[in-house]
Design goal:
alpha+beta, 11-stranded antiparallel sheet, 11 strands, about 20% strand
């Protein structure tokens, strides 16, 4: 899968957004309780991809600087013993040594909810990025095994995994126009819009290659058995604690409408299942972009083969 033609670049050729395979884990646990779990998940991710892959980080002043083992150790220690006087944790690492957008990276943004705007309606977020073809390179089962390991480490209210137009906090605004222009054509892509987390408490995102539901959301949709019955042919599994794992296609779909989107699998059926809990958005970083038709793009579409030839 070569998706390099979808990379957004500056006039000088620097990357503003790129297709990646990303995992989004959303939690309603406040940062002081979430910290040790986030540290465990971040440590597992770095061990999984290799300690020398990530190259830059965001410093305390918001400026980019080289990422060192000492910096990682300091961040993980703080998460495990998160100071009572701090209200939020923001950790962002990336693989592009020049500080643009690499194909590996991670973002943790977590607060205690009580002292930030949108706190009562928001979830905390851990996003982990991989190259677009990573799952097929290491094996789909190996990637899913790692994803399920993450869910055991990090308490989720919801989550998802699939292809994403990855942006970083320092390129997000500049890349918005390019990303939003591509969304109507590439139906299976996530826009990597961080502010979704501000309205996600008690709700889900939209259909992805893989959707994850915490126990509360899964039970609200009838439990794993009922979800599986609504998605015949999907890979549906019960998660520890009563949550639910939903895999809507054999491989991460692209959903290119110019090719009739043959790879979207059961994403339309999953979209209909999640419609009652789907987040509502007023925008995707651009007041000219209407998110509701995009959020509903699968609702009237027929499901396709789970593993197309």
């Amino acid at each position: 899968m070569n998706l390099d033609h979808l990379i957004a670049k500056t006039r000088k050729g620097y990357c503003l957004a790129r297709p990646t395979l990303s995992v989004f884990l959303y939690s309603d646990v406040p940062v002081h309780q979430l910290g040790p779990h986030a540290a465990a998940a971040i440590e597992a991710y770095i061990q999984f991809i290799g300690a020398d892959v990530l190259k830059v980080c965001v410093g305390n002043n918001g400026e980019l600087r080289p990422l060192t083992a000492r910096k990682v150790a300091k961040d993980l220690k703080q998460l495990r013993q998160f100071p009572a006087e701090l209200a939020a944790a923001w950790i962002e690492y990336d693989a592009d040594p020049q500080g643009w957008v690499g194909d590996f990276g991670l973002l943790l943004y977590a607060t205690n909810f009580a002292v930030v705007e949108h706190g009562p309606s928001s979830d905390n977020l851990l996003r982990l990025d991989f190259p677009a073809a990573f799952a097929e390179q290491i094996g789909i089962d190996a990637f899913i095994d790692f994803l399920l390991r993450l869910v055991k480490l990090f308490p989720i209210e919801s989550g998802n995994a699939g292809l994403t137009f990855k942006r970083t906090s320092w390129t997000e605004g500049t890349a918005t126009e390019h990303v939003n222009r591509l969304l109507p054509r590439y139906l299976a892509f996530d826009p990597c819009y961080q502010d979704v987390q501000q309205d996600l408490r008690g709700r889900t995102t939209w259909a992805h290659w893989i959707n994850l539901l915490g126990a509360g959301l899964a039970q609200g949709l009838g439990g794993t058995a009922r979800i599986a019955a609504a998605l015949p042919g999907a890979d549906v599994r019960e998660l520890p604690g009563g949550g639910c794992f939903i895999r809507n296609a054999m491989r991460p779909p692209v959903g290119d409408v110019n090719r009739q989107a043959p790879d979207i699998g059961l994403m339309p059926a999953c979209a209909r299942l999640l419609q009652p809990t789907r987040v509502r958005l007023t925008g995707l970083g651009d007041p000219e972009f209407e998110p509701e038709p995009w959020l509903a793009r699968f609702d009237a579409m027929p499901a396709r083969d789970w593993n197309p030839a």
